[in-house]
Amino acid sequence: EAGVAQSPRYKIIEKRQSVAFWCNPISGHATLYWYQQILGQGPKLLIQFQNNGVVDDSQLPKDRFSAERLKGVDSTLKIQPAKLEDSAVYLCASSLAPPYEQYFGPGTRLTVT
Amino acid sequence: AQTVTQSQPEMSVQEAETVTLSCTYDTSENNYYLFWYKQPPSRQMILVIRQEAYKQQNATENRFSVNFQKAAKSFSLKISDSQLGDTAMYFCAFNNAGNMLTFGGGTRLMVKP
Predict the structure, then answer these.
(1) What angle do CA A97, A45, B90 make, to 5 degrees?
(2) A73 Rama class: left (phi>0) / alpha (psi -120 to 50) / beta
(3) In which region does residue B53 sit, left (phi positive, over 0), alpha (psi from -120 to 50) or beta (all else)?
(4) Which of B13, B36, B60, B100 lies 20 to 30 Å from A57, alpha-carbon distance?
(5) C-beta neighbour count of B74 within 10 angstroms
(6) For the segment B40-70, what is each residue's pLDDT rounded down to a tens digit?
(7) Which of A41, A92, A96 would you mutate first to test chain B, the one with the most B CBs within 10 A?
């Protein structure tokens, strides 16, 4: 069974630029999550999708972050414009449904200079 | 809101010995799920073990076991016969049966040869 795929693995941008991350969950997993993991901290949920609907986006900075999950499969997370404090690893995870185990992708390490 | 606290930022153990990682949480819910995740230096988060709050029996997975004390809101992870491959960040996480996964700050475990 293929795992959660994410791309790119690394991205370096200047502040005020925009960036997008892509995630392909495990086949059949209805629930998809995006987390932000700042160095030395635990992951923090940004947004949770159930199929193509948003379940929880209470911690998503909506003035600069957006996410979509078209057709209930792949998802993209966008930051526009980026700030220095957005430097982090962005993790995508999927599960059959809460509260089943979440399977994580390798993450995208974003550096904002 | 739920909070998860890991009071040991770093720990070390000699190969083949046993180590226990601590985790406490705060919730007013009665039905929930607890997890331990491992994040090796390569960054991919892997599920180690899970515990349902309604189960009194402590979960075990090979060399990994938990000590779940519901009244004390404590959920520690014991690793027996530690191996070099156990070196990683370990995160305790709480799931309120459908809502977001809340992570602790992590414990960095170093297994020494």
Answers:
(1) 90
(2) alpha
(3) alpha
(4) B36
(5) 15
(6) 987 789 999 999 998 889 999 999 999 999 9
(7) A41
